[in-house]
Amino acid sequence: MTESNQTPALVRSPLVPVTLFLLSAGYAIWSNHLSEIPRMMPFLVAVVTALLCAFDFLARGDSLFAQKIGHWLGADFSNREMKHNPAISAEIAMLLWMVLCVGLMMFIGILPSVFVFVLIYMRYQGKQSWRNSVIA
């Protein structure tokens, strides 16, 4: 992508908040099948996510109201982060790093996994030497 003010069409698309809203609605419906206490946190996450999706959807218009909501959310597409359009392979690599982190936490615990994950991430993704990775 060039250095212009263009943002990828998929990023600006209203399908993103609508899709996330539908996923959060499904998550809320699923959480109602749990018993009373375990249901509370997933339901709260689903409701807050749906609320943020509604704000995001409203912020994607061209009206003054949409611009104010977009500015309030920091989602006005003028930040350079919004112009970043990485390759799908880079996105998949990031997802695999997250899966590795969660897997380490599941199998060796949170505290040891922080050290191991940072060491591996700095070495391979950050392309640092083993010495710098251990120091980090």
In terms of topology, how is this protein built?
Elements: H1 9-12, H2 15-31, H3 36-59, H4 64-73, H5 88-108, H6 110-124, H7 130-135
Instruction: Give the structural class.
Output: mainly alpha
Q: Which range best describes the helical content: under 10%, 10-25%, 25-40%, 40-55%, 55-70% or over 70%?
A: over 70%
Report the order of strands and helices. Answer: HHHHHHH
Total number of strands: 0
The Cα radius of gyration reads 20 Å
Number of helices: 7
Query: Strand count, sense and closure of the main sheet?
Result: none
Give average pLDDT, whole number.
83
Taken together, the total number of domains comes to 2
- Content of β-strand: under 5%
Task: Report how far the terminal alpha carbons are from each other.
Answer: 33 Å
Account of the protein in words:
The relative contact order is 0.08. The mean pLDDT is 83. By secondary structure, the chain is mostly helical. The protein has 2 domains: 1-85, no CATH class; 86-136, no CATH class. Helix 2 runs antiparallel to helix 3 (36-59) and helix 3 packs across helix 4 (64-73). Helices cover 71% and strands 0% of the residues.
